[in-house]
Structure formats: structure tokens, C-alpha cells
């Protein structure tokens, strides 16, 4: 059984580590190299940089033109001949992507500085002129028979920043782990149309590391105990764990390397500049056996996993210089991309320490000499590192570190943690934040990015954020959400528009239920109900409402249990059994979960079977299929060897849950449906009728469950949302109006 935990690094003879650095970088052909710097190791565009000028597409204009034309063919198929593509780097300003749209002889000419610029212009036209929509959840591309005309001289749009970054280390495991080329091809198209030119490309790196470590003298057993299973590679790459869910098979390595080659080729053909992995600072447990003269330091536990190791802080500076030197051996123009998480750690990383890390060498020249800070990257020259301000929409770091003391940074929206699917997002912050970042005194902002941990959720937030690539000022949120409804569903539906306005601000729980009312009301109209994306959103919104309602049932269960409500009751002369209220509350909760499961089964986006079958499809032997299925099941349940940090010894109940439910599920091989069943609209309407009265009857409970989470709900959107709220919340007939045409047919459940 693979072991979990330890990480350590050779530090007393830094030069001995250079073979590790050099081999991986010589295998990387992109000009951007990524090193993930972890807080656990250390305790914790407003400006143009000449050091970034060389970050340009490697593909020729002809290659990019062909790639963009093929993308258009994949999206609109038979209508592709209506679009003429040209890549011309001279049409826009330096270090900014530009596209020009103009109609000529009945066809739309799209000229862009890169393939990405062309793709961005293509989607700009689809969305802004044809009211189309392309997202993770699905596409609505009903083009009019005659394309809208853009008369000469046309429309010219230029990006606000040089760089548009995409992805998070965790996304590779939460969302992409089981993807084949068909998934990636569609996704890269979306990246290009959304304007991203700096995507993270992490597939297949374990094959490179295996080659490196074997050449250094490690054996295969050492590596089998080091590499985590496919679903946990993100955290093994960050040094949080090792071995769990492994070992990786030879076939896995071959598949991932071949896939990475396709991914990189397609990204580069469109003019993207992929970000590749560099050395992250941790090595296999067997390292001391091969290099006994190196010092290692035992680090703390990460979650339920065993202890890890890292270098003595006094060597961090030399270690950083070696890291950057290794990049230079592969590419003298290499740029180090670093996440900003370490600067959010409490304790060590105060402004003086961060400043020492970021400013220890002159601009574009040399390396620091004697270290002034205990930091890995002390020796990186200004402008040779890009910092990802990872969660700028919630907790920006650039403003507390003087714009990273001169290092370029990218304003990123993280938004999603753990791949969860809750409905939320800070619209106001996303609308204004990038503009605030560029206007910050002496700002070094060079781009914006998405750093969510998981995709396939909250399409609206990402569509809204992505337009910041080219928007010149914050939007009128009311108008934007109104146009979003038309683009996403292909219909101009008033009730759904009102629902989205309610959700556009940080909603109160009763506003969530009000939006639910409006969504359900609109489901009676075929023009809306026929939209696959509307049905997807109807399921997702109903799911969110049921999750909130479950709080009431769970609260009732706890209340009755804590009151020791286990004795018999006499109600109106009728003798009730012991614990009747506990049982009743529990049954309510179980019933809700059953209804939720039935609803989710009606939409392909929520099917467990697809996640499991995608995992098994990558296996070439039964043993591989079983291992991958175990990885897939474990990641979404136990997430590791056990659910808690300590063994299940608190109570027999906990032991029973683990042994009878959680652990058996991870080893189970039962087949789950991969095709949806049931009528989404009927199910959602029935559930709404069944559960909406609970929210009215117990309005006080839900009113205090969640309060608005912003201190600045002002402006037209907030005022309009309040007016809609007043209209639907305090109309005594709203329930009858919403549910009067819903049948009592129980067969749909």
C-alpha cells in the first residue's frame, strides 16, 4: 500500500540538485516556466516590462490563421464559410491583443493580432451581435439566417493587458484528471474564444520526473511510493502528500505525455503561451539514501496525511538561485510564475519580508548576494517573475505589498474552492476590481486571470469576469444580466431576467427563493423550457434551494435530539411512540435528499456515472480501471485514507458510518447511470410545490440563516433587485400564482 506524507529537499549542497532542475527544464519548450511555491515550505496592466516582451506566439501567422479557422468550423460547422480569418500582428498596439470586425461581401472578416485575438473577436461577434453563448455548461449558437452586418470601417477592440492567465494546480485534479483529447479540444476552443493566452499546462510531468529520478539512481519502488494516484496528483505536485492513490502505471505516463503534446501543439497553434512546471521543491522519501550529506527538516502535517520535509530556511535563498539558474539553462528568457498564497500566510510573511523576497536584485540585472530574507525566490530579478494574485476578487494581496514591490502581477479571480457547485460570486468586486488594480499607485499589473479550483459551475460569473479582458470600464450590471439571459437561453424571458437580477447582488436567502419562484414560473413557457441551458440552470437553482432548506430540517433534528426528545408523546389523546419528533425530522431530511438525487439524475451535468466511467475509460487493464475508479470515488468522498484527522474512535456511530458507508463506497464497483432520466421541468415544479411552503412557514429561520455579505449594496442593480424582491416576496398571491398549474402527479418522482 503506498505511503502518504513525507517530503524533503537536499539543501547543504545546492549544486547537487541542479540535475533535477536541468532535466525537467530541458524537456520544456515553452518560454514560461512555472514553479509552485507553497506556503507550507516557508512558514509561509498598468506597466509594461521589457523583460516580458519576448513572450510572443511561437506559431507563424499562417499556422495561427489556420488554427483559428478550424476553431470556427468546430463551433458553427456549416456556417464557417461566413467568416474570413486573418492574423496580422501589426493592427494593434504592442503587447496588447487586438481584433477588427467588418462585413465584406456578405461575410464577416475577423482580423486579429494572434489566433487567440481572432477567436476572441469571433466570440465577441457571436455574443454581442448574434446573442449566442458558449460556456462549460453548454452552447446556444442559433445564428440568424443572415449574419448582422458591421459596416466599414468596422469595430476594433483591444485587450486591456498583455497576459490573460488560466487555471489552478487543483483544477488539474478536480476537473481535468480524466479528460481525453476530445474534452481538451473543446476546452481549448473555449479558452481561445474567452481570450486566454497564458494557460497552465501540467499534464504528463510525472513521466519527466520519473526519467529524471531514475537517472539520479532512484529505483521504481521509490517512485511508486512517491507519485500519488491520478486524482491526487495536484496535491502531490504541491508536496502536500505522496503515494496516496498510486502507483502510476507505465500506461498512464504514456497517455499523459501524448495528451500533453497535443495540448501544447493546439495551444501554441492558436498563439497561446503555455505555462509549464518547474521544480516545486520536494523529492522522494528515498533521497537521503542516495544523498546522505544533505540536510532535511521535518515539516508539519498537511490535513490527515503524514509529515512532510523541507529545507532549512537559511538555505532558501541559495535554493531559489539554483531554481532560477536551472530555468536559465533551458531558456535565458525564462519567466518564473509564482502563486501569491505564501504572502497570505499569517506570521512570517509581513511586508518587509515579502519586500526582501521580491526586490533583492536590481531591475533586470544580476542576482542578490547575501540573502536578506528567508525566501526561495530572493535571487529573482524584478520583471523575471510574474506573481499570480490568486484571489483578487476577495482578498487581493498586491495592495498590501505595494504592488509586489515592483514585480509584475496578474489580477486573478479564484472564486471556486474544492470544485464545489454552490451558486455564489462577487459581481461588484469582479466588475470593478481589475480597474482598481490597474489604477493602483505604481501598479505593476500585467494581466487578469482565472484561478478557480474547479470548473463546471457558475457559468455566469466566469462569463462576466472574462469580459474584463476587453471592457474599458465597469458594466451596468442590470443591462448585462438582461442580455445574458437572451444569450444563454436564446429567448428574452422577463421572469428569468428578474430572477437573475435578484441573484446578481449578494442575495439574501429569501431572494434566492424568489428567484426560484420566477424560474419555475417561466418553465411553463415552451420557449424557455426547450432550452437545455435553462433546464440546467433550473436544476442547479433548485439544488441550491434544497440545500438551504435542508438546514431547517437538520436544525429541527438537532433541536429535538438535544432536547432528549426520545420519550413517548400524547398529542390530542393519541399516544405517539418514543422519539417521534426526532424520527420525523430525520425522515424529512432523508426525503429531501432522495428528491434532490432524483432531480439531479435528470441532467447530465450532475451524474456520478460520467465521472466514474471517464475514469475507467483511461484504464487499459482491469487493474488500472479499478485503481482509477477508486481514485475517482475517493476524491469525492473520503479524500484520503480516512475522513477525520484521527482514527474513528469517538463513537460507535462514527465507526459505523466509516465502515458501512464511506469506505465501502470507495471500493464499490457498482455501475451508475451515464444518461439522465426523468423530466427536469416536471421534477423541478413538483419539488418547488412540495418544499416552497416550508420556506414561507419558517421565513424567520431562513431570514437569519444568511445575511447579505457586502457592505456596499448600492446602485441601480441593488435598487432594482430590492423592487423585484418587494414585488414577489410580499405579494400574498405569489404562491398561488406560481404553483397553481402544477399537477399532483406523484409518478414523476
TrEMBL record:
**Organism's domain of life?**
Eukaryota
Bilayer-crossing residues are none
Q: Where is the Alpha-N-acetylglucosaminidase tim-barrel domain?
A: 164-311, 312-364, 365-472
The Alpha-N-acetylglucosaminidase N-terminal domain, residue ranges: 66-148
Task: Provide the Alpha-N-acetylglucosaminidase C-terminal domain boundaries.
Answer: 505-641
Q: Which UniProt keywords apply?
A: Hydrolase
Question: By its UniProt entry, which InterPro entries does this protein fall under?
Answer: Hex-like_dom2 (IPR029018), NAGLU (IPR007781), NAGLU_C (IPR024732), NAGLU_N (IPR024240), NAGLU_tim-barrel (IPR024733)
Q: What is this protein called?
A: Alpha-N-acetylglucosaminidase
Origin organism is Ridgeia piscesae
* Pfam families (alphabetical): NAGLU, NAGLU_C, NAGLU_N
Q: Does the keyword Hydrolase apply?
A: yes
Record flagged with keyword DNA repair: no
Amino acid at each position: 500500500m503506498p505511503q502518504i506524507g513525507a517530503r524533503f529537499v537536499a539543501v547543504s549542497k545546492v549544486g547537487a540538485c541542479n540535475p533535477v532542475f536541468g532535466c525537467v527544464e530541458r524537456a520544456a519548450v515553452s518560454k514560461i516556466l512555472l514553479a509552485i511555491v507553497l506556503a507550507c515550505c516557508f512558514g509561509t496592466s498598468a506597466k509594461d516590462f521589457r523583460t516580458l516582451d519576448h513572450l510572443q506566439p511561437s506559431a507563424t501567422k499562417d499556422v495561427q490563421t489556420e488554427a483559428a479557422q478550424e476553431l470556427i468550423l468546430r463551433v458553427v460547422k456549416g456556417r464557417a464559410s461566413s467568416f474570413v480569418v486573418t492574423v496580422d500582428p501589426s493592427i494593434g498596439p504592442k503587447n496588447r491583443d487586438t481584433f477588427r470586425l467588418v462585413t465584406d461581401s456578405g461575410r464577416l472578416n475577423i482580423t486579429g493580432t494572434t489566433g487567440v485575438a481572432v477567436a476572441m473577436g469571433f466570440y465577441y461577434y457571436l455574443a454581442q451581435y448574434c446573442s449566442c453563448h458558449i460556456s462549460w455548461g453548454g452552447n446556444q449558437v442559433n445564428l440568424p439566417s443572415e449574419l448582422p452586418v458591421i459596416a466599414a470601417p468596422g469595430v476594433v477592440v483591444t485587450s486591456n493587458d498583455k497576459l490573460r492567465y488560466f487555471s489552478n494546480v487543483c483544477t488539474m485534479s478536480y476537473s481535468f484528471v480524466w479528460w481525453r483529447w476530445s474534452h481538451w479540444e473543446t476546452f481549448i476552443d473555449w479558452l481561445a474564444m474567452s481570450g486566454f493566452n497564458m494557460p497552465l499546462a501540467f499534464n504528463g510531468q510525472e513521466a519527466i520526473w520519473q526519467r529524471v529520478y531514475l537517472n539520479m539512481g532512484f529505483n521504481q519502488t521509490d517512485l511508486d511510493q512517491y507519485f500519488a494516484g491520478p486524482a491526487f496528483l495536484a496535491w502531490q505536485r504541491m508536496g502536500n502528500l505522496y503515494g496516496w492513490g498510486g502507483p502510476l502505471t507505465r500506461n498512464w505516463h504514456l497517455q499523459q505525455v501524448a495528451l500533453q503534446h497535443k495540448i501544447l501543439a493546439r495551444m501554441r497553434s492558436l498563439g497561446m503561451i503555455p505555462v509549464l512546471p518547474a521544480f516545486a521543491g520536494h523529492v522522494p522519501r528515498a533521497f537521503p539514501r542516495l544523498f546522505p550529506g544533505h540536510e532535511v527538516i521535518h515539516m508539519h502535517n498537511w490535513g490527515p496525511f503524514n509529515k512532510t520535509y523541507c529545507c532549512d530556511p537559511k538555505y532558501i535563498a541559495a535554493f531559489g538561485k539554483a531554481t532560477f539558474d536551472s530555468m536559465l539553462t533551458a531558456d535565458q528568457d525564462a519567466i518564473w510564475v509564482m502563486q501569491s498564497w505564501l504572502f497570505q500566510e499569517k506570521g512570517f510573511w509581513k511586508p518587509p519580508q515579502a519586500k526582501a523576497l521580491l526586490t533583492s536584485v536590481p531591475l533586470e540585472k544580476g542576482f542578490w548576494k547575501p540573502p536578506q530574507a528567508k525566501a526561495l525566490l530572493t535571487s529573482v530579478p524584478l520583471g523575471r517573475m510574474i506573481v499570480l494574485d490568486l484571489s483578487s476578487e476577495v482578498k487581493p494581496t498586491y495592495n498590501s505589498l505595494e504592488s509586489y514591490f515592483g514585480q509584475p502581477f496578474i489580477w486573478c479571480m479564484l472564486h471556486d474552492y474544492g470544485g464545489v457547485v454552490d451558486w455564489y460570486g462577487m459581481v461588484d468586486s469582479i466588475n470593478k476590481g481589475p480597474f482598481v488594480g490597474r489604477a493602483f499607485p505604481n501598479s505593476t499589473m500585467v494581466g487578469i486571470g482565472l484561478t478557480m479550483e474547479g470548473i463546471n459551475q457558475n457559468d455566469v460569473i466566469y462569463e462576466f469576469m472574462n469580459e474584463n479582458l476587453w471592457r474599458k470600464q465597469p458594466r451596468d450590471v442590470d443591462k448585462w444580466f438582461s442580455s445574458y439571459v437572451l444569450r444563454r437561453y436564446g429567448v428574452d424571458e422577463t421572469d428569468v431576467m428578474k430572477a437573475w437580477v435578484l441573484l446578481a447582488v449578494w442575495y439574501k436567502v429569501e431572494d434566492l427563493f424568489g428567484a426560484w419562484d420566477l424560474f419555475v414560473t417561466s418553465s411553463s413557457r415552451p420557449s424557455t423550457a426547450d432550452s437545455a441551458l435553462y433546464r440546467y440552470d433550473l436544476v442547479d437553482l433548485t439544488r441550491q434551494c434544497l440545500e438551504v432548506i435542508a438546514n431547517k430540517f437538520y436544525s429541527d433534528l438537532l433541536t429535538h435530539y438535544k432536547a432528549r426528545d426520545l420519550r413517548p408523546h400524547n398529542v390530542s389523546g393519541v399516544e405517539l411512540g418514543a422519539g417521534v419528533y426526532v424520527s420525523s425530522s430525520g425522515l424529512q431530511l432523508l426525503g429531501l435528499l432522495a428528491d434532490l438525487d432524483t432531480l439531479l439524475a435528470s441532467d447530465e451535468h450532475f451524474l456520478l456515472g460520467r465521472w466514474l466511467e471517464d475514469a475507467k475509460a483511461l484504464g487499459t487493464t482491469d487493474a488500472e480501471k479499478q485503481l482509477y475508479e477508486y481514485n475517482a470515488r475517493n476524491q469525492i468522498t473520503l479524500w484520503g485514507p480516512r475522513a477525520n484527522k484521527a482514527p474513528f474512535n469517538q463513537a460507535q456511530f462514527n465507526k459505523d458510518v466509516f465502515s458501512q458507508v464511506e469506505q465501502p463506497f470507495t471500493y464499490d464497483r457498482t455501475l451508475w447511470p451515464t444518461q439522465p432520466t426523468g423530466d427536469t421541468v416536471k421534477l423541478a415544479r413538483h419539488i418547488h410545490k412540495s418544499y416552497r411552503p416550508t420556506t414561507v412557514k419558517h421565513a424567520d429561520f431562513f431570514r437569519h440563516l444568511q445575511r447579505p455579505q457586502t457592505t456596499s449594496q448600492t446602485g441601480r442593480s441593488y435598487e432594482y433587485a430590492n423592487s423585484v424582491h418587494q414585488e414577489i416576496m410580499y405579494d400574498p398571491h405569489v404562491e398561488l400564482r406560481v404553483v397553481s398549474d402544477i399537477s399532483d402527479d406523484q409518478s414523476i418522482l
